[in-house]
Amino acid sequence: MKRRTLEQTKSTVSICQVFFRYLAAVLFVMMSSHAHAQETIELPSGQRLQVFMVPPEAGSNEPSPLLILMGGGPGNFSISRDTSRWLGSGFASRGWMVAVPVSPNNRAFRGAENNAFIAELIAELQTREEVADGKVMLAGISNGGLSALEIARRNPSNYFGVIAVPAVSSSAFENRTLDGFPVYLRIGGADELGWMDRFDETVAVLTEAGVDLDAAILDGAPHMFRMDWVSLDAWLTRVTAATQW
User: Fold this and answer.
1) What DSSP character marks residue 189?
2) 182-188 and 136-140 as β-strands: parallel, antiparallel, unpaired?
3) 202: helix, coil or strand?
4) What mean pLDDT is predicted for residues 181-202?
5) Complete DSSP assignment for 125-145
6) What domains can you pick out in the chain, each with its CATH number?
7) What secondary structure letter does DSSP report for 107?
8) How would residue 28 be classed by pLDDT, with cut points 50, 70 and 90?
9) In angstroms, rounded to a whole number, what is the distance separating the alpha carbons of residues 188 and 108?
10) What is the mean pLDDT of the chain?
11) Cα-atom radius of gyration of the chain, to the nearest Å?
12) For residues 34 and 54, is the Cβ–Cβ distance under 8 A?
């Protein structure tokens, strides 16, 4: 048990190191015009979550669809803040109300208890006039991508789909509730953590589970990479086509 815990800790540290190196490069060249509001939201369970909110660009008086974006590594304050700036802004510019929650226990949003915090957060945010009711998009980076898949498995009908950039999975049975569910998966071809070596396995188990999968390896890309907005925009249009806000 102690050995497994040590290996898991090393893996988390490696993910964090990769994440911070990538963010430093991205933030150096990227400036955002969006306002990023940090809030503390008390959930019905009594848990208080810090959340970075990135509103969509002005221009519509209608409520905006909600996208929950979860950062990599432990999902701590600095990772979530930086994720809201470089990736949250990209989604906000496409009309989404983006919420980037900070993990309350440095475990990303993995596990039943942390999964439940996201469901509570969504319910709270959808009481706001500027946030649309109905389905929500889940997105996550690395550990955040794993969190997004876990959350979607519990109540897939509540979500448009999952954007996992990247994520891995090893059990078709675990994903059986995602039959017909849209997942956008990208993994870097030069992933420093070796996740590209699990791409074929992940595609196989998700396909066996019946997932509506759009998956690709990005040639030469590291563990953290810039979004391929051309393909992602097409996917977003497809999975939200039947919904009007």
Assistant:
1) T
2) unpaired
3) helix
4) 97
5) HTTSTTB--S-EEEEESTHHH
6) 2-240 (3.40.50.1820)
7) B
8) very low
9) 21
10) 88
11) 17
12) yes
